[in-house]
Amino acid sequence: MRHRLMLTVALACAGLALWTFAAQAQQGEQQHRPAAPPAGDAATRGQALFAESCASCHGTDARGVASRGPSLRGVGAASIDFYLRTGRMPLSRPGIEPQRAKPVYSRAQIDDLIAYLTGLDGRGPAIPRVNPAAGDIELGRQLFTDSCSGCHQIVAQGGIAPGLVAPPLDNSTPTEIGEAIRVGPYLMPRFGERQLDAHDVDSIARYVNEVGQHPPNAGGWGIGNVGPIPEGMVAWLLAGTALLLVARVIGERAS
Amino acid sequence: MSRLLRMLTDLALARGVLRARHPPPEPEDHADPTRYDAGAPAWAELALVVLLLLCGACFAAFAVLLALAGDTQLLGATAGGGLALLAAALVLAGLRVAPRETAVEPREDAPEPEETAEDERLLGAVADGVSRRRLILGAAGIAGTGAILAAAAPVTALGPSARVLDESPWRRGVVLVDEEDAPVLADDLEVGAFITAFPRGADKRELGSPVVVVRVRPDELELPAARRTWAPEGLLAYSKICTHAGCAVSLFRYPTYEPGSSPPALACPCHYSTFDVRRAAAVVVGPAGRPLPQLPLAIDAQRQLVAGGPLSGSVGPAWWGTRRS
User: Fold this and answer.
1) Residue A82 CB coordination number (10 Å)
2) Which residue of A has its CA nearest to B187?
3) Closest alpha carbon within chain B to A70
4) How far is A161 from chain B (nearest CA, A)?
5) Nearest by CB to A162, which of B18, B250, B285?
6) pLDDT on residue A28
7) Domain region containing B195
């Protein structure tokens, strides 16, 4: 009798656990897999997507919700595109720092959302056309040193500052770099056309691409690209040990 | 232990191939017992020639690559390979090819007794008149003078305070320029932007020169009443030199959406002193003891940024006697 009671309780517990797990999984699915695009023009499809995943924090009319999310009126296509294509939005809950992640929306869905939101208010920076090949790498180095390296470090590997984490730019595409400069996402300052023009942005993107993402390893072994200290360590520890061993092997005591 | 180690290294490095059997068989009929020349084995001489040829080929390839400005890694491999082959050739020549000779260098003959006596006489003449007491007293005197001088040196720092920290090129009407001496226009900066500016015509490397200009929304300013007019259109300028250790304050954060993220601030990368730009650079966190000096700004008829007066305080780290905000 007692055994049967215990079995029932155990089964009930297992059932409850499974149900909560399934419910959570379903919730996760809902958040990460938006429904199939409804019919209609881009703005209508965008509105449907917005109502589904963005409106809880940014408001049904995209004017923001107090202390949950900012208004998206007039933020510009560059801002919307940057946050969505780098997976920083949607956030799993309001108030956390947006971080780079796998994008939730497809390119077409992002375009729909941009069409909807820029239709509400067309102000704000458009998606910049960035062409690193047209940039000047020396100018890029200088501008990156002046305006970016304080937080992102001179080799674009990111860093920390009080109250924020500056991300590494390893995976940033030229367009994303241009958008971040114009938009100033999260805690980053923003730089307008008058402060950094299109050529400046091209140059910065080229610098990030050639120095930060593909550092020139003339020797074939960058050893982390952190400068002369690991090189000295390798020379002293590896080469020095090898030299000692060779001396030991070929040397001979005088008799 | 050491014998075990030696056996292991011998085994691992096949030392027996390189080295002649130890001890070398002494040729009994040799005229000179210090010299041993068993004659190099033919394979060793051949190997030596091959190694030297390969070494020459490596250096020739290096020269060709260098002339062609070729691949850096190939350059390194040919130069390093040439040197390694040369070393291998030298090792082989030393161990198996060159004849061995045991040389003894005798000491010089001991000096004659009368010369020693002469040296002793000279030494005695030098030491004459220096007693142990005088030597100790003299040494103590020199040491004491040094100690007194060392103790007195800091006193020279107690003079008038270093006024250089209060000097700055900023005066009313001085135009703000960027690094290329172009005037900074008010419209260059959007809300949330920052730029480093200098006084026109002054030395940019001077401690009092660099300021960081930021723009915030005018309605979010919380400046003290006396500084209300110092930030036209939300443009603020502060000295770029941290008041803690004198580093360049090069970090600026400006939130897109303030609830849930940090408020706007300037921060120093050295020790993370953080200054609230909206409240006259008050220290939010970090080791800095006082706010960054503020530069009153004005906008002239050409929309250029100009200084509305001197900096509000002394620039740079807090020194004795110059610690005022």
Assistant:
1) 24
2) A194
3) B257
4) 7
5) B285
6) 43
7) 165-307
- Asked if the Cβ–Cβ distance from A161 to B285 is below 8 Å, we say no
Q: Contact, B191 vs B213, CB < 8 A?
A: no
Q: Are residues B146 and B195 in the same domain?
A: no
Q: Rounded CA gap, B312 and B226, in Å?
A: 11
Going by C-beta distance under 8 Å and a sequence separation of 6 or more, which residues neighbour residue B235? B186, B189, B213, B214, B215, B297, B299, B305
Per-residue confidence of chain A (255 residues) as pLDDT tens digits?
456 666 666 666 566 555 655 555 444 444 444 445 455 788 889 999 999 889 888 988 888 888 888 889 889 999 999 999 999 988 888 778 888 899 999 999 999 999 999 988 888 888 999 999 999 999 999 999 989 998 998 889 888 888 888 999 988 999 999 999 999 999 999 999 889 999 999 999 999 999 888 887 887 777 777 777 888 888 899 989 999 998 888 877 765
Is B154 inside a domain boundary? yes
| CATH number assigned to the domain comprising residue B183 | 2.102.10.10
Are residues B148 and B275 both part of a single domain? no
Chain B residues closer than 8 Å to A70 by CB: 256-257
Nearest-10 Cα torsion for B256, B257, B262, B266? 30
Tokens standing for residue A164: 């924020």
**B209 assigned to some structural domain:** yes
- Reported ipTM: the value is 0.72
What's the pTM value of the predicted model, to 2 decimals?
0.69
Q: Which residues of A touch B (CB under 8 A)?
A: 66-70, 94-97, 146-147, 149-151, 161-164, 183-192, 194-195, 218-220, 245-246, 248-250, 252, 255
Dig out the tokens for A1 from the structure: 């009798």
**Chain B contact probe: residue of A190, A196, A243 with most B CBs at under 10 A:** A190
Residue contacts between A and B (CB atoms, under 8 Å): 113
